[in-house]
Amino acid sequence: MEKFLKDKGTLAEKHTKSPLPRQVLKEVFGYDQFRPLQAEIIGQALAGKDALVIMPTGGGKSICYQIPALILGGLTIVVSPLISLMKDQVEQLQEVGAAAAMLNSSLAPAEYGDTITKIRQRQLKLLYMAPETLLKPDILELLDSVPVDCLTIDEAHCISEWGHDFRPEYRQIAPIRQRFPNAVCLALTATATPRVQDDICENLGISDAGRFIASFNRENLFLQVQLKHDPARQTVEFLKRFPKQSGIIYCFSRRQVETLCEFLRKQGFSALPYHAGLGDEARKQHQEQFIRDDVQIIVATIAFGMGINKSNVRFVVHYDLPKSIESYYQEIGRAGRDGVRADCLLLFSAGDTQKIRYFIDQKPDALQRQVALQHLDRLVDFAETEACRRRPLIRYFGEDYDAERCGMCDNCLSEKQEKIDITVPAQKFLSCVFRTGQRFGAAHIIDVLRGSRNQKVQQFSHDRLTTYGIGKEFSKKQWSHLSRQLVRQGLLEKEPAYGGLKLTQRAGEVFAGRAKVFGTIQEEPLAPARAETPANYDAALFELLREKRKALADAANVPPYVIFSDKSLIDMASFFPQSAARFSDMHGVGQVKLERYGAGFLEIIRNYCREHNLAEVPASRSTAPARTSRKTPLQKLRHQVVGEAFRGGASLEDLMAEYGTKRSTLISYLYQYYQEGQRLPAERLLPASQLPPAQREKVLQIFERLGTQKLRPVFDALNGEVAYEELHILRLYYLNRKKIK
What we know:
7-stranded parallel β-sheet; globular; Rossmann fold; Arc Repressor Mutant, subunit A; 5 domains; alpha/beta; 17 strands; 38 helices
């Protein structure tokens, strides 16, 4: 163990005396395999070559510089923007036995002085500090006296003026590099568009060959959007699915934070507020209680979370709309860092977009307003998409994502709403845009269509137009959703600065009756998607292990996830290790943690197994495939559970009762199960159809002629006489009958 954690000689000697990265990964951190790109980035650093690392939150960025730091002979400086983030990283490193410390204003004078002494005596491998601390003359003079092998810049997007969290002091880091000419430079961030990446590389002098961009796809995050109609009650219903589990709820304003937090406490939830209006001590105390699992939920503004590395956050709720996709991505990234499934719920309403637009309008700079409006529009597109949610989210960051179904968002797990002919309402909307002069935004057009008597409508005499009041059949939300479809279909253009709508040439085709418009009319409210939780582990044993973890964490004055992550406890509660050797195979169990905690946790597991007559699960069930495959046994998806239950003899009625869902949703699950290559008993699907035998046979004949890829041609061929739900059922029957033959 010591060979990883202390200075083992000069840089020239490191390649012959130092351990291999994979050896450090297992023996220090307790992980069996590297995640994508980690090995390549570590190799780049050990070869003395700079790198820009773009890797999603929870993707394993820290390992990319921590392993080189433990292998290289000198000191690794880690520049980090927040004290809480430094503290968290240092505690986790010290827990695995690594020589790490931080320098910042939170330290007592004695502790600060002790760290200075350790630096001088070359006892540290990693030193965390804020950019302001690094720039101090006395600190630079101190660092000049020791070998610095690596300069790591965490949250590197702070360097870029094009980023969402620019910090001027980060721009001053580049000249510091000249003081340490032999130190390799690693810049890391989770959120950087291609433009921000270019800015970081130019500022730090990192070549294109040094860019390592991991996928932005966090596969363990379930993404869900609901129309906001009773947000407090919607939030409560969502939270009931996560008893005793940690989560964050983001609100737009301080007032909303306090109101919602009080409401949740009255409903029996363990919740605390966090916003800039609280005093420093209160914020620090609330954050600490959340990190240590003394409180379940933090209700917060965006002021919370950047410095949080809590790995067992099981859900994130956006009670209000965030300002941009970058903000949304960063905030949901605080969930599921241990790799176990986490749920992300966004409550969406047109009213929230208007609230954000109001604040955007207050910006004095026209370019800033334009950029902010573009960010908002992209976020609304994400919220309203009917396709897989990962497609617009991941493509925003410049990554190709062409999968039709991710299996981990509400759109992929629910039955898609078929497009209908919306030509008539589209003509009404387009006509109103034309008659109001093609200079107003969607909100005003909708007011005219719905016959509003507000001041603006009357001021422009728009209550005298022929289109005034002709759209009362739809709500404001439904018209707003429809208007955005018209923009996406190229019938309307939006003026960038103020959002005014103008007709395109294609709109004339619709007016003239030469083209039809197909789309959807949004239902109100959307039913919440039900999603599965991790299965196949012993929940009672998991709770016993969690209690032990909490007791040890309190005694050591560290957060529980520093002892072991939820993923580690799930491993233990799945495979029931009975020996120290087998315990060391569990996720996140390195040598130091085995020595410190192995005996205590093994005693609990052995006693539990004796009481319940359980045996250790063989090694073949917990080797690499269980930890490296995208879908582990602990993350079985709802459609897989439903499919297996149906194959096992459960009827559709049984499954509807068990999961509280409608027949059409179950058929959608079964179809997804079939698409993964699983066979279903066709003879048990046919009774689900309510059509007369002759009509069923007609539908099957049309499937034979037109195929099953799309239902719209089949629906049209039947002149709309057979409902889509029946077509879904009979398609599934047809496909499985064909498969048997």
